[in-house]
Design a protein that fits this description.
The protein is of the alpha+beta class and 183 residues long. It has seven helices and eight strands. The strands form three sheets. A four-stranded antiparallel β-sheet has the order 1-2-3-4. It has a two-stranded antiparallel sheet with strand order 5-6. Strands 7-8 form a two-stranded antiparallel sheet. The longest helix has 14 residues. It starts with 15 loop residues before the first helix and ends in a 10-residue tail after the last helix.
């Protein structure tokens, strides 16, 4: 059997003639000023930044929209997401708990879905579609040790009156009875 070597996928740059047609064109906040070797281009941004270098493909296909000023402004304004709970891919603990709660109850491909959604446990519609409503009800985590818990009915749904932040000890005390395996 021949020795197969895997090579990383390499995206080929557009032919130079096609890339030269991009000079002077504006894409979002960027205007392409110069085409550089290896599929790169030098751009000017509407914020005043000149000579910003990036891939010409990413500019022409709206993957790069500015020199970074657009995102910086959105973060400064506090509106990079509608709920403001994520910065550069870092979720707050409360937002992460909300996403994980919905995933384990409503995504059949999720790890251990059978233990939540497979048992019929759901997240109420208001919370499933509205992170702010969830956060307004449950509040911030009291400490890093706390996690979300269905209480007082540990077989009930995630809904108002049945959710709290709990310590690991409280979680253990609120577990459903385990089935004993007979030998």
């Amino acid at each position: 059997m021949p020795d197969l070597k895997l090579r990383p996928a390499v995206r080929k740059a557009a032919p130079p003639s096609r890339r030269l047609g991009l000079i002077g064109k504006r894409f979002n906040r960027l205007t392409i000023r110069e085409i550089l070797p290896d599929g790169l281009c030098r751009c000017d941004c509407e914020c005043g930044t000149t000579g910003f270098e990036t891939e010409s493909y990413s500019v022409a296909h709206n993957l790069t929209k500015s020199c970074g000023c657009w995102l910086a402004q959105k973060v400064k304004d506090g509106c990079n997401l509608s709920h403001g709970e994520s910065r550069k891919g870092q979720w707050t603990p409360e937002y992460r708990a909300w996403v994980n709660m919905i995933t384990r109850c409503h995504n059949p491909n999720a790890t251990r879905y059978k233990d939540w959604g497979g048992r019929g446990i759901t997240v109420c519609e208001e919370w499933r579609n509205n992170y702010e409503a969830f956060l307004a009800h449950i509040g911030r985590k009291p400490s890093p040790r706390h996690s979300i818990d269905r209480f007082p009915n540990n077989s009930g749904n995630y809904e108002q009156g049945n959710v709290r932040w709990a310590t690991p000890r409280e979680q253990n005390l609120n577990q459903r009875p385990r089935r004993r395996k007979c030998a």
